[in-house]
Amino acid sequence: MNYKTQMEAARKGVVTEQMRIVSQKEQMPIDVLTERVAAGSIVIPANINHTSLSPEGIGEGLRTKVNVNLGISGDSDDYEKEFEKVKMSVDLKVESIMDLSNCGKTFEFRKRLIDYSTTMIGTVPIYDCSGYLEKKLTDITANDFLKVVELHAQQGVDYMNIHAGLTRKTISKFKESGRLTNIVSRGGSLVFAWIELTGNENPFYEYYDDLLDILNKYDVTISLGDALRPGCIADSTDCAQVTELTELGILTKRAWKRDVQVMIQGLGHLPIQDIDANVKMQKRLCHNAPFYILGPIVTDIAPGYDHITSAIGGAIAGAAGADFLCYITPAEHLRLPDLQDVKDGIIATKISAHSADIAKGVRGASDIDDKMSDARRRIDWEEMYTYAIDPVKAREYRESVPTADEHTCSMCGKQCAVRTTNAILAGEELGL
């Protein structure tokens, strides 16, 4: 039976190899998985040209996934350094990498990335338009934008962030909103500038059907971008954000009619008390499409520590139903992250995602916690390291201060509570 996308296959009752792999990874019955892919509450981003991919599912009932952003900028353009981040990300078992490069030999880097990576690959094509086309923003045409989208699709990109909901109507609401930080989405700001400077409608909105034709051809999942996400907690859940989200819900249904898989991007900066309501609003307005979130960052005053502010928000949002977390590094708002920043961001976000999975009751989520707890009871350090999110750091910390007893750590030494209790229960001498 012929099909072009995972959604179309599921609607026709076809179980693809990608579905079988996701079903096995997630311990989800294949019939439940295919039903949700058909309905759009689960996506399996898997471009037909990404042959190295180990497919993952995102959405209802599945583990919360983690994305890493990387890529060069005009001020930091060492592709080899970026590829070191790629290798680290794959080694740390993230499920997705977004290449946000906006200058230089982007296509060569992206080809190398796609050939190497078993993770999903995402892009924001508008970042690449000016550099690739060698045109000023105002000289780029609607056809130019679509051309770059197709070039990314041909390379094997699994999902693309497209700011199709930022229309002339939503811009009018933004202008009326009196925001404190205006637009903080890079892609959103470029679309906004193009609309304002040319006087034209958003090309991704005006030619949305043509865009969907490209995505359908290569089975690229569309991540409908949140150009008007709040850039500070004061702008949380304002009229501009909600107006765009409503438009994204309409665009979701249009994509589904063309068998194109959809994720919704959102959040940004939100105070803790707004997170749960925002997630539920997105799920309602966008028909339970998977929710891909940045942060949310829960306070605006921690530059250098935003991997922590976003980890707090990400755990709460994930527990409320968000499906996919984009990592934030300590370098957010300050610089392009270095290798250590990337690792810190990944670890913090993996903690958020795993904590959310436990809260959501995802099948098997807490099994590894139980194994860690059992190993701690038995004071088996080597086994504990195997369950740790960062086993290298766990080992380095414990071994940095030698102990008299190999079974204890330097925090309590011979007064270790676990050691004491085990000895009493076993009828042994304490040695204290």
Based on Cα principal axes, name the global outline.
globular
Overall residue-averaged pLDDT value: 95
CATH architectural label of the largest domain: Alpha-Beta Barrel
Helix content: 40-55%
Structural class: alpha/beta
Structure annotation, total helices: 19
- How many strands? 10
The biggest beta sheet reads:
8 strands, parallel, barrel
DSSP strand (E) fraction?
Answer: 5-15%
> What is the total number of structural domains?
2
> In what order do the strands lie side by side in the largest sheet?
3-4-5-6-7-8-9-10
Poorly predicted runs are: none
* CATH level-4 homologous superfamily of the largest domain: Radical SAM ThiC family, central domain
Output the radius of gyration: 23 Å
Distance between the termini: 73 Å
CATH class bucket of the largest domain = Alpha Beta
Here the CATH topology of the largest domain equals TIM Barrel
Summarize the helix and strand pattern as letters: HHHEEEHEHEHHEHHHHEHEHEHEHHHHH
Walkthrough of the structure:
The chain is α/β, with parallel strands linked by helices and 432 residues long. The protein folds into 2 domains: 6-359, Alpha-Beta Barrel (TIM Barrel); 367-425, no CATH class. Helix content is 50%, strand content 10%. It has helices at residues 6-11, 17-26, 30-39, 79-91, 106-116, 125-133, 142-155, 168-177, 186-198, 203-206, 208-218, 239-257, 272-285, 306-320, 339-360, 367-377, 381-387, 391-399, 417-425, and strands at 42-43, 58-59, 65-70, 96-99, 120-123, 159-162, 221-224, 262-269, 291-297, 324-326. The strands form 2 sheets. An 8-stranded parallel beta barrel has the order 3-4-5-6-7-8-9-10, surrounded by 6 helices. Helix 7 runs parallel beside helix 11 (208-218), helix 16 packs antiparallel against helix 17 (381-387) and helix 17 (381-387) packs antiparallel against helix 18 (391-399). 47% of the residues are buried. The mean pLDDT is 95.
